[in-house]
Amino acid sequence: MSRSELRDAGELAVHLLAGAAQLAGRQLGALVPAEARLHLIRAQRELLLAAVATLEQREQPQSHAKRGPRVHKIPLD
Question: Does the pTM exceed 0.90?
């Protein structure tokens, strides 16, 4: 699978997850207290942000792997 296919699949998964969470939120709205719903919405937002950050991290080129180790000897007196 190419990177673009993985990105598209990841974006689809994020959209499906968001849609499922919205549907569940509407269905459970009468059963769940308002404070708990607010907590669940905030948790959903954090999960979506983490998914987006993960996808963006995978898209960035791995240029630092070509540079080699960043360890340097420090001269002591």
Answer: no
